[in-house]
Structures are given as structure tokens and as C-alpha cells.
Amino acid sequence: MTDNFIDGKPTQKRMEDHLWILLFGVTIFLGAFLLFQVQPVIGKLILPWFGGSPGVWTTCMLVFQCLLFAGYTYAHFLVAHLRLKAQVILHCGLLLVAVTMLPIAPAETWKPHSGESPQWNIIVLLLAHVGAPYFLLSATGPLLQSWLAQSRLIDKPYRLYSLSNIGSMLALLSFPFGVEIWMSSSEQATVWSAAFIIYGLLCGLGAFGIGFLAKHHSPSTREVSEGNSEGTLTILPREHEAKDTRWISWLLYAMLPSMMLLATTNQVCQDTAVIPFLWIAPLAFYLLSFILTFESERWYLRRPTIQLAALCYLALYGLKLMGWKTHLAVEIGLYFAGLFMICMVCHGELYRSRPGTSRLTHFYLTISLGGALGGVFVGFIAPLLFRGFYEFPLALLGSTMLFLETYLRSSTIWKLRIPQHVKGGLAFGIPIAAVVWLTFWNATANQQLVTKRNFYGVLSVTDGRDLSGSKSMRKLVHGRVVHGSQFLEEGMRSLPSTYYTPTSGIGKTLNLLQDRTLNVGVVGLGAGTLATYGREGDRYRFYEINPDVIAFAKEHFTFLRDSNARVEFVLGDARLELEREANQSFDILVLDAFSGDAIPVHLLTEQAMDIYCRHLKEGGVLAIHISNLYFDLQAVVSGLADSKGFQWEVVEGAALASPDAYDSKWAILSKDFRIVESLEVEGNDRDAKNGQERNRTVKWTDDQSNLFQVLKGIR
Fold first, then answer.
1. DSSP assignment letter at 429
2. What does 61-87 look like in DSSP terms, one character per residue?
3. Torsion over CA: 400, 404, 405, 407 (sign)
4. Is 571 strand, coil or helix?
5. Domains of the chain and any CATH numbers
6. Contact 47/59 with Cβ under 8 angstroms?
7. What string of H, E and C letters represents the secondary structure of 497-550?
8. Which of 14, 250, 373, 559 has the fewest CB atoms within 10 Å distance of its CB?
9. CA 234, 237, 240: angle at the middle one, nearest 5?
10. Are the CB atoms for 320 and 396 separated by under 8 Å?
11. Backbone phi, psi, residue 450, to 5°
């Protein structure tokens, strides 16, 4: 019997080849899916342990980028220095070691203690729990692509890079819209661990099969070739390979998008919310640019793409440096659009300058090194060098300069006989001059007494005027949100202001209970304004995670030292500290971690409520500050009250009450109905809308929470 032939190959042989290619494709896809799915899974697991700070995700991304670089380095080393059989044995052996580290969920003993460095704690925790699996997953793409190239089964291994990016994209998008909704955090970790075992089996099968394929496939007659900027194929002689300096441009074009990715994520999360979706969306745009540009050159047209990017730059310069104000959705959209266009240009240029398959792992290694360097700059170097979030405008400046040089180099202007120093001035002088002027203008517009940056954000003290413009005031600002202010006139320094005036919910509650000595716990110090309500014999115990907030409140404001109450401080995440402490028997426990627009979700779960109840006296009051521009937390308060049998009322304070007052919204909960009923609720008339809000209930747990449920305008 004779075999049927198609294109010179037996039909059965072609089918076997397709099956092997399918196996490698599925393995690469699954590896990429797991690589990016583990990031939000482990990030959300540890986020509550470190105060819900945006720095948690930035540090996670830094670790992941460095592990990615380590994985690419490992793949490059295997391909460059070991025989195929040794590569297979070593890689499969390490996979077995990684399996022994499962599951990835950290134990309770890994929770941090006050005084410890949160950044180093996160790094050690991630390396211990996901380090080995992530390292090996990182090597999957380049290593398996190299093996396929050696087997002669496929001519275009770069297409598999797009396949891996599609897997990564699906992993990211499936988390907020599926995984996070359907599974608890512990279930996510368990399922991911099981999927990693399946990946290991597939990878092992492909690894041991590759030796057979390499022996039974003759070398391809197609020469290993290089892609130039026009997309045509040319031969790069081996003696020229050592002189190839394209790695410098690869490094720059990989580093800038990485910087922009982390800087944009920081910027968006700082004053909105530290939630997986706002981690994932920027990363998804970053990956989408990889998918498009590495799939085909038709997706990246250099000049129109750079021109479109320039429009995004103008909008971003306005938002960041000129202080333009716009709606949240528009602002986030502009940040994401700018990030996407920057990534499209950089990744498009990477693909245009790609090498042939002989330097494939070196190419990916350089890209991962650029990504890691961008992460190190944003995660480590920038916080040490700068007092503010200046990495965003710096990344914007760097990309502007690089793109201008790229644009001019591809235009007819660059080809004219213009002196080199004139070209340099065009490429670098204009954007530098513009940014220096804008930065100077922005810096002089703010009268900042002191500014400091740490893991939890940028904190500053500024002097200005009250809302009427008649009185001098000093303000404590976190990011761009005021966290307390104080009159500078001697006779007015003890007056509470902003969200804490006597007409606010917390002011009314404290004044209502003046007939007794009060034991008050406060989550979130701010400028220490609430201490002004303290009387002789009262105790005010403040829980604050940011050491700089305590230092600024003591140095630049007088609320704490002028208070008649005994004032105590507890440094650390309030929930973790309350969890460890003995019963404090608070008359009032104040949750004031929500006056900014970033929401530490872990303070509003049913498990957190259990902790608060343990520390409240019988009939004690839980006061929750729920003023927020973008999220309506009243439904969450309703869920908490219902779960523990609390009576509750929302007290709204109007800015019109006095020139030093801000609009505020406080939820007051107590099992003593007399306290709730005694509160004045002027302005809280029970109209139809308010009735609907009270009837709407959202219940969050440590395992399951979703801020989309309470986003204003989303019902």
C-alpha cells in the first residue's frame, strides 16, 4: 500500500506534524494564560494585607517583570549553551520542583507586622509562593518557539508570540468579568495551581517529543533571514551579527512602554480605586499592542500612528502638567489611549527591527530586560529620586523624544542636508524646553511647604485660603485629595473643618454623646482633626498605616497636641492591628479611610465587620465616612448593617453650612436605635431616590467584592 502525498509529504506525516504544532500551540497559550492570570489572583489575595495601596500592584508588576526577564535569560542560556536533550531534562526537572511549591495561596503567617517594609515583604512573599512557577512560565514562549524552529515544523515562530499574547489577554479580561465574579480568591488560587500541573504535563510531553521531531525533519531550505524596516527579507551575514547594535533600540522601545504601563496604573489607581480591573486594563492595552504589531506589519503604519500618538500626548500633558479637570471616565480614557498609542509605536518599531530566528531568544531577552528596567525605575528608583509621581511625565518626555526622532528619521526632512546639530535640536530641544517650562509653571502654581513620597503615595502640606477666600488655612493633601485642614489664625486653630465640622455626621454623633467619657477609635489619622472633639478623660486611639501621615500631623498641625483627650497612635494597617489587639471597648469606632476616591475594599467586608463588632461596646457606634465622587458606598453599608443587625442612618453635611465645611456623607451604625433616631438628618429627606438607595444592598466578603456594583451611574 502506498501513502497519499500532499505537497511532497505523506498525508499521515502532515497530520502528525499538525498535531505536534497544535500541542505546542496549546502549551504556549496555556502558559501565557497562567502567566498573566496569576498576577491579579495573587495581587488581590495580598492587597488587604498592605492597606490596599496602589504600591502593592506596582511592586507586584516589578517582581513579575524581573521574573519574566529571568525566565527569558534562562531560555536564552538553554538554547545558546546546552544540547537539546539537556534542555529538555533540565526544564522538566525544574517543572517538577515548581509543582511541589503549589498551591500558591500564602498562609496567614505571611501577614505583615507594623514597622516592616511593605515593599520587601511583598517581594519575598511573591518569590516564595509564585516565583518558581512564574519563572518557568516566563520561559515557555521563547523556549518552545526555539524548539519548534529547531524541529523545522514551522517557518514563522513569531506568530506564536502573538498566540501567547492572545492567551495573556484572555487571562486578563477573564478575571474581572468572570473569574473574580464566579470564584472566591481561595478557589482562584486552587484552580490556578491545578491548571499549572496540566501545563507541566503538556510541556513535558512536548519537550520529550521535540527530540524525535528534530531527528526526523530535514533542515529547511529556507535561509534564516532578517526583517528590515520595510518588512522585506534580507540576509544578515554572520560576521555582521556581532556588530549589530539594534539591541540598544530594542531596549529603549521595550523600556518606555513598561515605564508608561506602571506610571499610568499608578496614576489611575492613586485617586480612583486599587482594584484588579484598573490593574488589568492598562496591561491589556499593553498586550493588545504586542498582539497587533507582532501579528503583521499592516497594523503599524509608522507616520500616522506617531501623529495620532502626538494628539494623545497633548491631552496627557494637559492632564498631568497643566491640571486640566474632566470627568473620571474621560480622564481614564485619555490615560489608556495615551498608553496604547505609546505601546503601538514602540512595539511596532520592535517588530520592524526584529532579527531572524537564529537570534530569537536574544531578541526576547532584550525586550524583557527593557521591561524589567522600566519596572525597576518606576518601582524603586523613582520613589528614591522624586518627591512626587514624576515618572509619568518623564516617561512621556522620553517617548516624545524617541518618537520625534523616529518620525523625523522616516520623513523627507531628515534626508535633507541639514547639519547634525540642527537635527539634534529638532529631535530633543523642543520637547525638553516644553516640558521644563510646563513643569516649572506647575511647580510654582502650588505653595507646598513640604512634600514626601513613600510606598503609600505622595503626601504634601500646602498653605492657602478657605472656601470663602477670607481665612488662611493649612491643608494635608494625599495625591490630590485633601485629608484635613486647619485655620492658621490663633483663635481658630481648634475649629474642626472640611468633613469633620459640627454639622457633619461625625460631628453630630460626637456632640450627641458628650454626656459621657468617650473611648474613640479612629481608622485613618489625616491631619488629626477629630482630636479637637476630645475632652478631659476621653481617649482617642488613631490607626494609621502611613508613618509620614503621623509625622506630618504632629509637625505641621496642632490638633493632636492641643487636644484635651489622651491621644494614642497605632502604626500599621488598621484591620490587621485590630485583628491582633484585645478588645478595645470603643464607644465610637470611626472608619475614615474613604475620604479620598481610592477605596480600601478590605475595610468594608463582612469579615472586617466582625472585627469592628468585637471592639465596640454594647450599643457602641460605628461611623463610616462614605463621601466619594465616583462610588456610592451606601449599598455596602446597608449590607454590613443587615448582616450584624445594626440600625443605621446616613447623615449628609453641606458645604454651605460654613466656609470651612466640605460636602460630606457619613453612615452612622449602632444597635442602640435611640442614638440613630436622635441624629438630625436635615437635608436627608426620604424622597423616592433615597428610599431606593436604602433598599439596595451589596454584600462584600474577603473572597468576593466588586467595585463595579457601586460605581455611580452603573446600575
1. I
2. HHHHHHHHHHHHHHHHHHHHHS-HHHH
3. positive
4. strand
5. 13-216 (1.20.1250), 257-275+289-354+381-445 (no CATH), 494-710 (3.40.50.150)
6. no
7. CECCCCCCHHHHHHHHCCCCCCEEEEECCCCCHHHHHCCCCCEEEEEECCHHHH
8. 14
9. 115
10. yes
11. -155, 145
Distance of CA 13 to the CA centre of its chain: 48
Cell numbers for 712, please give them. Answer: 455611580
Strand runs labelled E in 296-447: none
Cα→Cα distances 157→152, 238, 355, 526, Å: 10, 20, 12, 55
With a cut of 50, say whether residue 444 has pLDDT above it.
no
Torsion angles phi and psi, residue 277, rounded to 5: -60, -45
pLDDT digit string, tens, across residues 301-341: 777 877 787 787 777 766 665 555 666 677 788 888 888 98
pLDDT digits (tens, 9 = 90+) for 156-212: 555 666 677 788 889 988 888 888 888 888 899 999 999 999 998 988 887 777 766
CA distance 367 to 365: 5
For 562, the grid coordinates are: 492641643
Cα–Cα distances in Å, from 211 out to 87, 198, 206? 10, 21, 9
Q: How far is residue 457 from each of residues 283, 369, 611, 628, 670, measured CA to CA in Å?
A: 21, 27, 27, 19, 33
Report residue 30 as a C-alpha cell.
496555556
What are the CA-CA distances from residue 315 to residues 309, 334, 394 (Å)?
A: 10, 7, 15
Which residues pair with residue 624 across a beta bridge?
Answer: 591, 667
Burial of 485 (0-12, 13-18, 19+ CB in 10 A): buried
- Closest among 43, 299, 353, 23 to 180, alpha carbons compared: 43
247: how many CB neighbours lie within 10 A of its CB? 18
Q: Tell me if 144 sits within 8 A of 28, measured CB to CB.
A: yes
* Distance set, CA 20 to CA 148, 192, 200, 206 (Å): 9, 25, 16, 8
Peptide bond into 103 cis (omega under 30): yes
Which pLDDT belongs to residue 655?
A: 64
The single-letter code of the amino acid at 175 is: F
**Higher local confidence (pLDDT), 298 or 194:** 194
DSSP-assigned states of every residue in 162-177: HHHHHHHHHHHHHIII
Give the closest residue to 115 by CA, choosing from 452, 570, 555, 567.
570
3-state secondary structure of 696: coil
- The span from the CA of 78 to the CA of 559, in Å, is 63
CB 537 within 8 A of CB 694: no
For residue 412, the model assigns a pLDDT of: 52
Q: Which three cell numbers stand for residue 208?
A: 520529550
DSSP character string of 650-686:
EEEE-GGG-TTB--EEEEEEES-HHHHHHS--TT---
677 with 648: CB under 8 angstroms? no
Residue 296: other Cβ atoms inside 10 A:
13
Say if residues 574 and 550 touch (Cβ distance below 8 Å): no
Q: Which of 41, 71, 55, 199 is nearest to 122 (CA)?
A: 55
